[in-house]
Amino acid sequence: MSILPRMTTGPERLMLEHMLDRNRQALIDTARGLSEAEARLRLVASLTTPIGLIKHAAVAERRWFQRILLGLDQSECDGYATPGDGSFVVADGETLADVITEFEHASERSRLISADFALDDTKTHPLAGDVSLRFIYLLLIEDFARHAGHGDILREQITAAR
C-alpha cells in the first residue's frame, strides 16, 4: 500500500469513504499471506491475533452499520455483531481466507447501507447517544487504522521469528 492515499482532494463523503476503504485494506494486508498457524498466534496477553483483528473488524462493521445505522436486531444481522472480547474469537474451522471474506462481505454490506444515509443523518447508540454517519465513518477509520497498526506489529514479530 502506498504511504499516500490515492485520493487527496474531493468531496468530504468520498474522502471519508476512501479512507475507510483504505484502512479496511490495510488491516487485511497485515494478515494476508500468513499461514493458518501464524494468523492465530497470540503474541500479547489479550485475545488479539492477526486473524482475530479481522474478525473483530467484521463485527464492528455489523455493529455500526447493521445494528446502529439500520436498526437491525442481533438476530437479523448476517453474523456476530456484539462488541467485546467475543468479537476476536475465531472458530477452529474458520480459515484466514474465510475471515477475510467475511470482513469484505460485511464491508460491502456497510457500503450499501450507508448509501441510503446522509453524513448528518443520526441514529441513537445505546451508550453514546445520537451518532451521525459522519461519526461512524470517522470512528471506524480510527479503529481500523489502530488495528492495522497492531496487525503490522504482530506481523513483524511473526516474520522475524520465521
Separation of termini?
23 Å
Identify the strand order in the major beta sheet: 1-2
Q: Averaged pLDDT, please?
A: 95
Q: Could you state the order of secondary-structure elements as H and E? A: HHHHEEH
| Integer tally of domains | 1
The CATH architecture: Up-down Bundle
Pick out the low-confidence regions. none
Principal-axes geometry comes out as globular
Pfam families: MST
Organism: Kibdelosporangium aridum
Protein name: DinB family protein
What does this protein structure show overall?
The protein is mostly helical and 162 residues long. It has a single domain, classed as dinb family like domain (Four Helix Bundle (Hemerythrin (Met), subunit A), Up-down Bundle). Helices cover 56% and strands 5% of the residues. The chain is built from five helices and two strands; from the N terminus they run ααααββα. A two-stranded antiparallel ribbon has the order 1-2. A hairpin with a 3-residue loop joins strand 1 (122-125) and strand 2. Helix 1 (12-31) packs antiparallel against helix 3 (50-69), helix 1 (12-31) runs antiparallel to helix 4 and helix 1 packs parallel to helix 5. The chain is globular and about 50 Å long. This is DinB family protein. InterPro entries: DinB/YfiT-like, MST-like. It comes from Kibdelosporangium aridum.
